[in-house]
Design a protein that fits this description.
Layout (H helix, E strand, L loop, with lengths): L14 H8 L2 H8 L3 E2 L8 E3 L2 E3 L1
Antiparallel strand pairs: 1-2, 2-3
């Protein structure tokens, strides 16, 4: 078995704010630099990083 690398990142924002930013398509794109289609409705379709969901 190979070596395991672990990394921890502490972000200077509350979890609720990060979650909101993640689910806002324009903010998500601004943060990651990658095109995304996403919304906060449970079960909604999405696409990001060449992946799609329901």
């Amino acid at each position: 078995m190979g070596d395991v690398i672990s990394q921890t990142v502490i972000l200077p924002a509350p979890a609720e704010e990060l979650f909101r930013m993640y689910l806002d398509a324009s903010e998500h794109e601004a943060i990651t630099g990658a095109p995304v289609k996403i919304n906060s409705t449970t079960g909604a379709s999405f696409s990001a990083y060449e992946c799609t969901g329901p």
